[in-house]
């Protein structure tokens, strides 16, 4: 039997074929499980030696690879993240790496647990999507395992970053609404109070982009930001606050499409029509935004490209840990749909 | 320094504290990385011995645990699956197990790769959500690692199953629509042609439940099933076919909420009003269905309970691999919303 080609990792399937036993038997031998005869064990061990197979666990001790890449996602309900994951797997599916995902739960403690778990399992690299951990923690992780941080700004000497230009993205929304004739344009942001990370978080940068663009359009007196979270519930509660204003906004810029879903909910419950009574715009251009009955104006930050870029950077860093870090920033575009229109007559 | 409590697993954080070094140093020693002094290595190794810490990799060789549970999800875009994942993590977050998820991509080859990767990494247990693999493959996996299969019917002697009663769920929809006065009720199913698994797949059982309920209501001549996929695109294409019928249905029962999103899209593009011209019902009762502007009638199969049940069964199986397998079936309920109403006058 031919040995497998050198560029491909030897798997237990190869070992089973070579030893002429089932993969179940190989697994049992590897796990020292019950139910294998001494003869079987000898056959499997010979095949392992012949092919140079390194079981996952053994590989680690010899500074080898585990062929595993960990992806931490803040929230698996946000329909934007599958775009990033698709971009990652487009690239990694063709390699020997297995992607394993874990929820970061938008919390520093949960993120610490997840990153520790990934390090502890000897993963070869990690992609951290929109982490909220301190930069110190991110650099700690990156000091141990090749790391790409997605959706967070700021340059690091130890990890690569991929994000979109959130400042420009927010300005695209404000300009679109102002061009339609809106002045009372409000924004719902994901609350960010930690001064150590505020300059790096996409949510904070979108809010800042909103402020800058409002000022640039001479609308500084109309700046109105509600702080909740980037969730459906956050959008719902934020919109309820805005709709209760004596002089309610004629347009709401939700910081993410998932936020816009909650805004639509609150607006609908208030008996208002979109876009006749109020315009709504989101951010992320998810498949939800494109859906006919929703047809949400949104900012396309090309999540799939973000994911693909992150995968490529990570593979390069795994191959050479000493290369200088890269900071990739992609340009967003506006997709105007039916939720935005001129404001109602005053 | 006190040793950690016996019930909790010793982590590298404990080792670092005990050795009075950073966790980075512990990780470096464990990985045999550069940049640690012989003195540091000695300190860390002493702490490892004192605390009885078993690094992940070492644990496996001694038939130990890796404290990892793998969850295979068919499609991370389907908003139903986060419900199951939430139910799983509700239970597992309180334990020392880390949940790692991988996409099964609705394909036998991809599922084989993912399950092999989970076995190869020594995971302690796996949860396979709506797998399409042959029963032979599922039993192969379960023969190696404790396994719970979610959303697929059929009893196995080697793995536990948790599903909802899809036959009843489909009947709830047909009865609701028939009670409103509909006769031309069509169904969009996820195409299932493999005779080896057809009796076990939730999609096939929903289609069968639809057929049985139609017959029970005397509507056997109106049975009309379009086979696509449980995706937004599948719903869109399925609805386009149904709307092109000379005598188009007055109600569409989509096999999943994600399918209903595509149906809404096609209906909206055809210039039809919901529910005035056509009623639409889904299955899964996702947060999307509850959304105000959508307000989709749907079947609640209690995904969170399904996930929690799966986690509990898996923990029990990890603790005792010889216990008899369980088959848990949960009862669905109908949540009627604004997308269903009496049919338009003939």
Briefly say what this structure is.
Chains A, B: This is LacI family DNA-binding transcriptional regulator. Two copies of one chain form a homodimer. Chain A is α/β, with parallel strands linked by helices and 346 residues long.
Largest sheet of chain A: 6 strands, parallel
CATH architecture of the largest domain in chain A: 3-Layer(aba) Sandwich
Greatest contact pair? A-B, 61 and 61 residues
Which secondary-structure class do the elements of chain A indicate?
alpha/beta
For the record, what is the CATH homologous superfamily label of the largest domain in chain A? Response regulator
Q: Please list the strands of the largest sheet of chain A in the order they lie side by side.
A: 2-1-3-4-5-11
In what range is the share of β-strand residues of chain A? 15-25%
CATH class of the largest domain in chain A: Alpha Beta
Q: Mean pLDDT across all residues of chain A, rounded?
A: 88
According to CATH, the fold-level topology of the largest domain in chain A is Rossmann fold
User: Terminal Cα separation of chain A, in Å?
Assistant: 82 Å
Pfam families (chains A, B): LacI (PF00356), Peripla_BP_3 (PF13377)
Keywords (chains A, B): DNA-binding, Transcription, Transcription regulation
InterPro entries (chains A, B): HTH_LacI, LacI/GalR-like_sensor, Lambda_DNA-bd_dom_sf, Peripla_BP_I
GO molecular function (chains A, B): DNA binding
């Amino acid at each position: 039997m031919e040995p497998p080609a050198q560029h491909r990792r030897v798997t237990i399937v190869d070992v089973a074929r070579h030893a002429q036993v089932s993969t179940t038997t190989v697994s049992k031998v590897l796990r020292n499980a019950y139910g294998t005869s001494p003869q079987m064990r000898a056959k499997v061990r010979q095949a392992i030696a012949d092919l140079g197979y390194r079981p996952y666990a053994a590989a680690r001790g010899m500074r080898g690879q585990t062929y595993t890449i960990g992806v931490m996602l803040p929230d698996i309900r946000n329909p934007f993240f599958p775009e990033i994951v698709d971009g990652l797997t487009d690239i990694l599916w063709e390699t020997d790496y297995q992607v394993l995902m874990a929820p970061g739960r938008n919390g520093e403690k949960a993120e610490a647990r997840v990153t520790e778990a990934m390090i502890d399992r000897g993963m070869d690299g990690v992609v951290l999507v929109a982490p909220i951990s301190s930069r110190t923690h991110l650099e700690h992780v990156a000091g141990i395992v090749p790391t790409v941080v997605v959706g967070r700004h700021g340059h690091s000497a130890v990890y690569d970053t991929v994000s979109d230009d959130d400042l420009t993205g927010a300005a695209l929304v404000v300009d679109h609404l102002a061009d339609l004739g809106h002045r009372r344009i409000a924004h719902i942001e994901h609350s960010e109070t930690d001064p150590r990370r505020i300059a790096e978080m996409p949510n904070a940068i979108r809010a800042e982009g909103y402020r800058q663009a409002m000022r640039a359009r001479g609308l500084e007196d109309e700046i109105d930001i509600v702080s909740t979270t980037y969730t459906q519930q956050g959008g719902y509660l934020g919109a309820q606050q805005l709709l209760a204003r004596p002089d309610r906004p004629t347009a709401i810029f939700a910081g993410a499409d998932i936020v816009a879903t909650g805004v639509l909910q609150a607006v609908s419950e208030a008996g208002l029509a979109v876009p006749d009574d109020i315009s709504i715009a989101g951010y992320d251009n998810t498949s939800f935004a494109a859906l006919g009955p929703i047809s949400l104006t949104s900012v396309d930050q090309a999540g799939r490209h973000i994911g693909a870029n992150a995968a490529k950077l990570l593979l390069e860093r795994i191959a050479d840990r000493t290369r200088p870090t890269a900071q990739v920033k992609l340009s967003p575009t506006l997709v105007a749909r039916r939720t935005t229109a001129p404001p109602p007559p005053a």
